[in-house]
Amino acid sequence: xxxxxxxxxxxxxxxxxxxxxxxxxxxxxxxxxxxxxxxxxxxxxxxxxxxxxxxxxxxxxxxxxxxxxxxxxxxxxxxxxxxxxxxxxxxxxxxxxxxxxxxxxxxxxxxxxxxxxxxxxxxxxxxxxxxxxxxxxxxxxxxxxxxxxxxxxxxxxxxxxxxxxxxxxxxxxxxxxxxxxxxxxxxxxxxxxxxxxxxxxxxxxxxxxxxxxxxxxxxxxxxxxxxxxxxxxxxxxxxxxxxxxxxxxxxxxxxxxxxxxxxxxxxxxxxxxxxxxxxxxxxxxxxxxxxxxxxxxxxxxxxxxxxxxxxxxxxxxxxxxxxxxx
Length: 326
Fold this sequence. Notes:
Elements: E1 2-3, H1 6-12, E2 20-23, H2 34-41, H3 43-46, H4 48-54, E3 59-63, E4 90-93, H5 95-107, E5 130-134, E6 139-149, H6 159-178, E7 185-192, H7 200-212, E8 215-221, E9 229-235, H8 238-244, H9 248-251, E10 258-261, H10 269-272, E11 277-283, H11 288-291, H12 304-323
């Protein structure tokens, strides 16, 4: 049974019992910021199985989260089973396959699908954040974090999500050292583990920071791909956002002059709850979801000039956050 969203499944009720629910609401290709389109569509993948199971469905198929309207690469991602709800199988379809299935259903409403999956949930094992830092010259006990996450979905190599953010974070420390810059506050690069499966690394880092009494002034995350810079989104008070806008003259030559209020990132959000100003790197998002969580997310999808330009913008803002008053 083809549906366009979770509310439709709820309204159909018993009509979906015993059926495979096929979520086929595409990401909105008209939105300039593709992350907005993703946010409006991704609930089908994250919560679709549980909602369908509550109505008696036996499985779900989900149109891939991509702005490409007809391509043959499935895009995977996190699925959350709600506590107390029966766990039913769920699988992503490429947009090409979704288009074909939709057409087949229109010609034959009694169409059946045989679904065979080999995916499994393995037991938890220890994993680790990777941390390196340059100790501050005047305020070593105040921290500015720059980070990305180490894990990725195994269809590709995770080049944009989030190899780009990882190397940009490492590059920030390298650039400061090569340039002989020794900021007032400690700059810490954190490569977070297990973001894709529930942000376990970020939660543990924040937990340890609180236990140690570490004061995090700011935390910057790169998790939107290695594309050309646009600027940064800031989570914090209007006063803090205004304070960061003082840095626009430094960022403008790097084509990263946009400082706007918005979501900073999954890995730095727990530090925001402890009082840090959290910042997310914003690159051009047009083609991010061409690659996101798919076999296309490989090294050859990353333009080295764009990657370096983003790293320059991130390193510049990180230095300013560590050097200046906010």
